[in-house]
Amino acid sequence: MWFTLTLEARDGSRCDIRYNPHTSEIDGIDLGPLDERDWLTAPHVSKLTPVGKSHAPKVLKIQLGLSCNYSCSYCSQAHQIGDATLSKLTDVEAFLTNLDSWLKGAPERIELWGGEPFVYWAKLKRLIPALAERFPTARFLIITNGSLLDREKLDLIVKYDIDIGLSHDGPGQRQRGPDPLDDPERRHWIEALLAEREDHVSINTVLTAENHDLDAIKVWFQERLGLDVPISLEGVVNVYDAATLLGAGRLEEADLHSLRRSLFESLATDPKAFGLDKRLRDFIMSLKVRRPIEALGQKCGMDRPEHIAVDLRGNVMTCQNTGAKGEHKIGHVDDFDAIALNTATHFAFRDECMSCPVVQLCKGSCMFLEGEFFKQSCANEFAFNMGIMMAAVWHLTGMVVVGVEGCG
Ligand SMILES: C[S@@+](CC[C@H](N)C(=O)[O-])C[C@H]1O[C@@H](n2cnc3c(N)ncnc32)[C@H](O)[C@@H]1O
Ligand code: SF4
Ligand code: SF4
């Protein structure tokens, strides 16, 4: 599947290059020596081709529940809250005791998930020390809205060297609810976290219909928190419910255009902006190593057998954002070999993704979305990833992509 990319130089002259996202070939850009390799085919999950889970996961995601002290307007979990299992502190003990029956080896990363994880403080306090003792080499990660921090929680974060993703939308925070930075006490603990965990914390913003001007986001955080604060992007909003489809998730043509332009301009000026250098490098690497489309899994990683999401009752779910009382229960650790991820669709089964020029960057958006929710999420992801691809081409050629056309 080849695309013609029309590039424009500063003097207005134009030329065409050709790009094939299925083979990562690019004609018209000199990448230096290529580093072609042998590739394994990623599992292609679908309802008809379910994928199991590995007894030796590299990423273990423990979902404590989906309760939260916030109710962000676009929350990806809102539609699942009723499906989350409720658990007690005694379930933590049973979970820990039962671990050896199904988990072999040591995960590289253990993630503790809510809802808001710090709503489950009593469980975290019991779980983390026990898991750290059992898996001393594992890194811990918590994604939090940052509104419930205090000295005791920070001490645990420091003691167990936990990586923290702090979700905050800067100038768009009102779409998430109250701003913890407006509350002196909450602000104090967020600043303490930033100071004490310097290299292990990032602030992550979700780009939405009304909040996708990267310059404005950068300036907002600099004015509120200082120049050196590490601002990253959670990504662009995906759509999981009708309210988000009509609200924060609905980027119209003009919004999609300004989102793409903002991404491009920000990254063209600073390739490290918003921690997006990883994505820029991944795309440029895909060209140098000629990464075939068959080798690509979904962006979230949850289609891989080595990534597993469990709740404290041992239920296994599609991902940490889903509950086990509904359709996203894909099995139970007590019957491990019967676990079957059959709730998702790898992008290889989606025609639009197989004819998409940014598939190497997007990797199919969310794998369980369907219908209108998928359609809008796809439009949002397309603009977001096209901005990144344009920046990559800019850094490789000094020219701007002004047209993309499929040519079969
Ligand atoms: C669902 S939250 C759970 C953790 C915690 N409560 C928090 O907000 O950080 C995990 C991450 O997903 C992001 N998120 C929520 N809804 C989203 C959506 N519809 N699209 C993209 N990211 C979303 C949040 O901003 C947060 O960074
Ligand atoms: S995004 Fe996080 S903080 Fe916001 S409602 Fe969802 S779980 Fe709560
Ligand atoms: S932008 Fe849309 S079509 Fe392209 S890979 Fe992502 S989800 Fe698929």
How would a textbook summarize the main sheet?
9 strands, mixed
Spatial sequence of strands, sheet with the most strands: 9-8-7-6-5-4-10-11-12
- Assign the CATH class of the domain at 59-271 and 294-345: Alpha Beta
> What ligand molecules are bound, each kind once?
S-adenosylmethionine, iron/sulfur cluster
How would you describe this structure to a colleague?
With 408 residues, the chain is of the alpha/beta class. It has a domain at 59-271 and 294-345: Aldolase class I (TIM Barrel). The protein is 32% helix and 17% strand. The chain has helices spanning 89-102, 121-134, 151-159, 184-196, 214-225, 242-246, 253-269, 277-288, 351-354, 359-362, 371-397; strands at residues 3-8, 14-20, 25-27, 59-63, 109-113, 139-144, 163-167, 201-207, 231-236, 307-311, 315-317, 329-332, 400-406. The chain has a 9-stranded mixed beta sheet with strand order 9-8-7-6-5-4-10-11-12. The chain has a 4-stranded antiparallel beta sheet with strand order 3-2-1-13, with helices on one face. Strand 2 (14-20) and strand 3 form a beta hairpin. The radius of gyration is 22 Å and the shape is globular. 43% of the residues are buried. Bound molecules: S-adenosylmethionine and iron/sulfur cluster (2 copies). One iron/sulfur cluster is lined by residues 347, 350, 352-353, 356, 358-359, 362, 364-365, 378, 381-382. Residues 347, 350, 352-353, 356, 358-359, 362, 364-365, 378, 381-382 line the site of one iron/sulfur cluster.
